Amino acid sequence: MYARLYRMPAVERKHIDLTPLKKAGVPIFFIVGGPGSGKGTQCERIVAKYGLSHLSSGDLLRDEVKSGSPRGAQLTKIMEAGELVPLEVVLDLIKEAMLKEVARGSKGFLIDGYPREPTICIPVQIQEAKAVIFFEVSEDILVKRLLHRAETSGRADDNMETIKKRLKTFTTATAPVVDYYEKKNKLVRVIITLLHEVFFFRNFL
């Protein structure tokens, strides 16, 4: 793939004081799971049971774009060009959200959709993740769930071909992260074999 011939816009960066977050020392969990794995539903249940804060990198990016801020406008240009938002910018958004939640008394974090690379992540700048929860679902179940979801989504691109591409992209992108944390004995595989699986933390908090 050839590099694009135009310069991508620089994204505004801010100095973020992480002192309150480091002092709080609350646990951090990364959540990994493919599209249709049900990780959003499971995160809601964990939040309700344990009082943790669920942060989704995708939601944070969308909220920043909707805010109309200069940074949001810069992010819009990057995404419209089909480029990935720089990891350090995603991390800035996560840090800011974590600081807000700690100020509200958060007991810990479930971080969904980050890191995309094992060596550029929160533990380097804040603290080591307590665990990485990997919702492992067979491709057959994921495809069934996504096709079922497509029946009500109204999206023309929710078809077998695009679903398989999304699953392949997810596997390629997350395999290094899963391998990295498995070698550090911090990976928890939750193997989901039913269409409606219930999972709660038991031994982490």
TrEMBL record:
Keyword Nucleotide-binding: yes
Keyword Transferase: yes
InterPro entries recorded: Adenylat/UMP-CMP_kin, P-loop_NTPase
GO biological process annotation, one example: nucleobase-containing compound metabolic process
One Pfam family cited in the UniProt record for this chain: ADK
Keywords: Kinase, Nucleotide-binding, Transferase
GO MF entry, a single one: nucleobase-containing compound kinase activity
Gene3D superfamilies: P-loop containing nucleotide triphosphate hydrolases (3.40.50.300)
HAMAP family, sorted: Adenylate_kinase_Adk
Family according to the record: Belongs to the adenylate kinase family.
Protein name stated in the entry: Putative adenylate kinase
Species of the source: Oesophagostomum dentatum (Nodular worm)
